[in-house]
Design goal:
The chain is an all-alpha fold. The protein has 26 helices and three strands. Helix 21 packs across helix 24. Bound molecules: zinc ion (2 copies).
Length: 591
């Protein structure tokens, strides 16, 4: 539900030349914090040269016009880069660093190890045909207003020159691909091709680029679109008698979890915790459903099965929702209410100089989710934050009704807590105060999603919704989604859970609609580990708060915990924990 520019959601496209890089080797005199910060800047520029698409997505536009051919040679160059940088990192002693740099150091090490693991062990360039999709980068160049349009269109034009060779090479790299990812690649390449076939031409019309040049640019767009269509034809006709399973398998899953989530717990441990949490939530939900039954059903006999009971009460409460044309207005009205609540309960300090703008979702965002946050990227920390709200105009009444029941009066408030206040929006405002680019670029998805989930519980615990059983029941239903995301992801990828069992888990035990459950199944069959981030981050933050409470004793204040926690930026909770629980606080921290 969040569209921020964090590394966890990005496919890394590597390639290009990495020269032997002697200037990165620091000399003895510059192994302190200042020397390390100089090294970081150099590290990032080297990284972007080898990953121009990733660079574009985080707002670094020096290499916009490059597209690197995805062959073995370019992978070797990236591996060389990781070895050189690991060597350079090894010369520093992070024990002497400020807390912020200690975290950067650990995050850079993790990132380099992850790149190596992807190339040498995961090898998704062989089995994931959608990992070659470059249309998203072209869309970014076209839609983000970081440079004058004519300049961006020129980068677009230069980058397109590589498309035919790029996709020819992709065809050579693919071996026994995953069927689900092959279908996704066909769907998403054809779905996005309008960016090159149509949007580019439409944008050209708005410029005064000379007609002869425009013609060259349009000719190249035609060739590029043809090359992409050829790629999808290739995938459609590919003889694939022994496709790889979409299930990652336990070993790769554990590795990926380690690199992406960076938790102090293993994937198995967090799965076990999620199973326990589900039991606890069912128990609580039963309690509230029993309490609510007479109010909504009078003397009608209560279902004997507790899951049936919960399901019927939820169904009844879901009828309380706004009308389709009041959706955005309802969300806009919530923002000042949530802000006032956070202030009145003294949960954390809000920065009034960074107002949140609620807006209709821009057309190019394709309207996947009903609401999402767009936050300024790592290289544009002063930019606006937008709360994008999808319009329900043009929806069939049935579709709108089903959607509005899902985002009913209760859930809609929790959604705004999660996305905006004090969830993602507030977290990003705090993160952007940290000078560290590394934390913004390699931002940890489990920390970011974990904070949003944690903030829901914090609001409820502090009396948001007046502790009404209706609100509590609906919040638990919403929370159950995060918990079941973890159970589902691990079960499917590590334990072979069959589809029917997965659908039953989501519909029967997590009270989701059939359509929502089918959508989740599709998501789990083309992604892995990301669905773990919500519950893992939540649990780690709750655990850390308990430890911090013990450490602070009488001096504990919730506001202090929240602000201290957020001050480190989007670092893994594990690293924030190390910093917050460190025996001696030196007082020299930057935060
Ligand atoms: Zn209705
Ligand atoms: Zn989120």
């Amino acid at each position: 539900m969040i569209k921020i520019l964090l590394a966890f959601a990005l496919f890394i496209f590597f390639f290009t030349a990495c020269k032997k890089d002697s200037s990165v080797v620091p000399d003895q005199a510059s192994l302190d914090d200042a020397g390390f910060n100089r090294y970081e800047a150099h590290f990032l520029d080297e990284l972007w040269k080898l990953n121009p698409d990733w660079a574009t997505s985080v707002g670094y536009h020096k290499y916009d016009s490059l597209l690197l051919i995805p062959n073995k040679q370019t992978r070797e160059k990236l591996l060389t880069f990781t070895k050189v940088q690991m060597d350079s990192l090894g010369k520093f002693n992070p024990n002497n660093f400020l807390e912020s740099n200690k975290m950067d150091f650990a995050m850079m090490q993790n990132q380099l190890a992850e790149i190596q693991w992807k190339i040498q062990t995961l090898k998704d360039y062989e089995w994931d045909p959608n990992s070659y999709n470059v249309i998203g980068t072209f869309a970014t160049i076209l839609n983000e207003h970081y440079e004058p349009l004519a300049k961006r269109l020129n980068s677009f034009y230069e980058k397109m020159a590589f498309i035919p060779a790029y996709y020819k090479e992709a065809e050579k790299q693919i071996k026994n691909p995953v069927v689900e990812l092959t279908n996704l690649a066909i769907e998403q390449h054809l779905g996005g091709i309008g960016v090159i076939e149509k949007d580019f031409a439409d944008s050209l019309k708005k410029t005064n680029i000379p007609e002869t040049q425009k013609k060259l640019m349009l000719d190249r767009a035609k060739l590029s679109a043809d090359a992409i269509k050829e790629y999808t034809e290739y995938l459609k006709n590919l003889k694939n008698d022994h496709p790889r399973s979409f299930r990652l398998g336990k070993e790769l899953y554990d590795d990926k979890y380690k690199f992406e989530i960076q938790s102090s717990l293993t994937a198995q441990q967090i799965y076990n915790a999620a199973v326990e949490r589900k039991k606890y939530l069912h128990h609580e939900m039963t309690k509230f459903s029993k309490q609510l039954w007479p109010k909504y059903f009078g003397t009608k006999p209560m279902p004997a099965d507790s899951l049936d009971l919960i399901s019927q009460v939820i169904d009844t409460l879901s009828a309380k929702h706004v009308a389709p044309d009041e959706f955005q207005e309802a969300i806009e009205k919530q923002i000042p209410i949530l802000t006032a609540f956070v202030k009145s309960k003294d949960l954390l300090t809000m920065d009034p100089s960074k107002p949140l703008v609620v807006r209709k979702e821009p057309g190019y965002m394709a309207g996947v989710a009903g609401a999402s946050m767009s936050s300024p990227g790592p290289y544009d920390k002063g930019g606006n934050s937008y709360y994008n709200v999808g319009s329900l105009a043009g929806w069939s009444p049935e579709r709108a009704e089903s959607y509005l029941r899902e985002y009913n009066q209760y859930i809609l408030q929790i959604l705004s807590i999660h996305e905006a206040i004090p969830g993602h929006y507030v977290q990003l405002i705090y993160a952007n105060k940290s000078p560290s680019l590394i934390k913004a670029i390699f931002g940890n998805g489990a920390m970011v999603e974990g904070w949003a989930v944690y903030s829901e519980q914090m609001m409820i615990d502090n009396g948001y919704g007046d502790n009404s059983p209706e609100m509590l029941l609906m919040w638990y239903k919403w929370h159950l989604r995060s918990v079941c995301n973890t159970i589902l992801d691990y079960s499917v990828h590590s334990m072979n859970m069959p589809k029917q069992q997965a659908i039953t888990l989501l519909t029967h035990e997590a009270f989701q609609q059939q359509a929502e459950a089918e959508g989740k199944w599709k998501r789990v069959s083309v992604t892995s580990v990301q669905l773990d981030s919500y519950y893992t981050g939540f649990k780690e933050i709750m655990d850390l708060r308990e430890e911090w409470k013990k450490k602070m004793g009488d001096k504990y204040k919730l506001k202090d915990f929240n602000e201290k926690f957020l001050s480190y930026g989007s670092a893994p909770v594990k690293l924030i924990r190390d910093a917050m629980l460190a025996k001696e606080t030196t007082g020299t921290e930057k935060h």
